[in-house]
Amino acid sequence: MAQQLRAAGLIWKPGPGDRFAIPDRDLDDQVFVLSDMTIEVYHGQEGRLIGFNGTTEWALDDVELDEALWLPHEGQLRELLGGTLRALRREEKGWEVDITLLGEDRTFAARTPEEAYARALLHLLAAAAA
Predict the structure, then answer these.
(1) Which of 25, 73, 96, 104 is the most exposed place for a label (fewest CB within 10 A)?
(2) 65: which DSSP letter?
(3) Who contacts 79 (Cβ-Cβ below 8 Å, separation ≥6)?
């Protein structure tokens, strides 16, 4: 869905907390999060600890922004739908999102809320490009 959103013209303005993937680099199953700090849970002598680290050296170093694929979360998708969003409903087989665009009501169904929001956003992007 993220690839479809990018292909439809969704522009990513990276910020802390944003999730992204790096396709085509044998990292397809990894989800990365932009952060000002690296925070990790590790085991110490007194139990599990949360460590706050400045930076982590890693062999990947830098990646061009256009090589990364933004994975917008539910709140970001909802915000991008803006005033067109009317409702999110739990249904027997998943979720439905209702939007109104130029007086036309549309419903988009999916397995998860994020996917339903993304389907609705794809419709908005297609309408904006037309």
Answers:
(1) 104
(2) G
(3) none
